[in-house]
Design a protein that fits this description.
The protein has about 140 residues and is of the alpha+beta class. Helix content is about 25%, strand content about 40%. The longest helix is centred in the first third of the chain and has 37 residues, at about 1-40. The model is unreliable at about 25-30 and about 125-135 (pLDDT under 50).
């Protein structure tokens, strides 16, 4: 009886070891791919998401430097040169600084409506090395 238990334990440990050995590279590859797609190199994302009941909605994510800010709109200069005007509202959550001019930001917004969130990432340096904008 003790030999059967020991044999079963060894078989279970070998199976677990094999599973973890084979699964780890697949998980690492997936994390690497996700971080590359949604990481700091992201410029623009357009995704179609299911909202339930068979309907869908388009969600956008844009990353760029804020060149102008009003109470109702942000203007982003993206790294590829595109200028994107994104509506904002009082319901838009702004994480970081409220005055975003001169900051690189990530904006999540639906295709039809105001941005849901704005995340300030880093203050952009001018070519002379001084910081751009006011704090």
């Amino acid at each position: 009886m003790a030999r059967k238990r020991f044999g079963f334990l060894v078989a279970a440990l070998v199976a677990l070891n094999l599973f973890l050995w084979l699964a780890a590279p697949a998980v690492a590859l997936r994390q690497s791919l996700l971080s590359r797609l949604l990481g700091p190199q992201l410029v623009r994302l357009e995704a179609i998401v299911s909202t339930g009941g068979g309907s869908t909605a388009q969600v956008n994510a844009d990353r760029g430097v804020v060149t102008a800010q009003t109470p109702t709109q942000l203007t982003l200069q993206e790294i590829d040169g595109r200028v994107q005007q994104i509506p904002i509202s009082s319901a838009t959550r702004i994480y970081g600084h409220k005055n975003l001019q001169g900051w690189r930001v990530l904006v999540i917004w639906p295709a039809s409506g105001a941005a849901t969130s704005v995340q300030a990432e880093v203050r952009v340096q001018s070519r002379t090395g001084s910081r751009v904008g006011n704090r």
